[in-house]
Amino acid sequence: MLAKSLVFSISCICVLGAAHVAQATTVTTAPFSAWPTSGPGLQLVTYNAFTSSNDEERLNTFRTDIYQSFRVNSTFTLTQYDLALQPFSDPGNIQISIYTKADTLESSGGNPTLGTLLYQDSFSMAEFSNFNNYGTQEFTLTSGEQFTLSPQTSPAGYILWIHRIDGGADPILRTQGRTGNPYADGQGYANTESFAGEDFALALFGEEPTAAPEPSTYALGLFGLAGLGLVAWRRSRVRG
């Protein structure tokens, strides 16, 4: 029995440590005004409003990579992430990945350092229905793609990476950002530059784990079942 328990525990550790590579994330386009600021399951947002002072970066043949680093304050299962995107080119394809990151405020002269891959999927511009207009793009993970994000010791955290795979005319895609350091626990990067005080729009939704019963609860339950069994046994003895 002990050997089986050890095997089960090791299996669970291996599963939790493995990368969850997405295969079936669905995309829904909502109005730009639908950018989330509150609501059930909202765990993190890099900034809460779009204003006339917003900036933007574009994926094209010169700038092919956009990143946003972040930290989380509680443990939750990631079920959805939102991005503010303005697609231009079709055909065109992007890849979105989430990695662990040792320092979410890293100032890098090159591409930011990435850790362990947690999630990855590719999307064609045809999956977005708001060509030439900004929209709130909602990416929903299937149950098999979902994974857990947990607080890390500062300055460690996570980073989302939007990568241009291919496409037609320039630019293939724009993403909304904002200067003024609206989000203190991370920052934006574009290609080989880190943008101190600029963040790209990112929102995360998830489900917090339900609390497991205390060992004493299990003990009381077993004690109650044993008591019921004893009563039934005594009754059968009396009838016999």
What does the secondary structure layout of this molecule look like, with pairings?
Blueprint: H1 2-17, E1 26-30, E2 42-45, E3 55-59, E4 65-70, E5 76-87, E6 92-101, E7 117-124, E8 135-140, E9 147-149, E10 157-167, E11 173-179, E12 188-190, E13 193-195, E14 198-200, E15 202-207, H2 215-239
Antiparallel strand pairs: 1-8, 2-15, 3-11, 4-10, 4-12, 5-8, 5-9, 5-11, 5-15, 6-7, 6-10, 11-14, 12-13
Word description of this protein:
- There is one protein chain.
- With 240 residues, this protein is α+β, with helices and mostly antiparallel strands.
- It has a single domain (18-207), classed as Sandwich (Jelly Rolls), CATH 2.60.120.
- The chain has two helices and 15 strands.
- The strands form two sheets. Strands 1, 2, 3, 5, 8, 9, 11, 14 and 15 form a nine-stranded antiparallel beta sheet that branches. A six-stranded antiparallel beta sheet has the order 7-6-10-4-12-13, with no helix packed on it.
- The longest helix has 25 residues, at 215-239.
- The two termini are 37 Å apart.
CATH level 1 name: Mainly Beta
What's the CATH architecture?
Answer: Sandwich
Largest sheet: 9 strands, antiparallel
Principal-axes geometry comes out as elongated
SS-based class = alpha+beta
Residue-averaged pLDDT, rounded?
A: 80
How much β-strand is present in the residues?
35-45%
Q: How many β-strand runs?
A: 15
Termini gap: 37 Å
Write down the domain tally.
Answer: 1
SSE string:
HEEEEEEEEEEEEEEEH
Share of helical residues: 10-25%
Number of helices: 2
The CATH topology comes to Jelly Rolls
- Pick out the low-confidence regions: 1-18
Computed over alpha carbons, the radius of gyration is: 24 Å
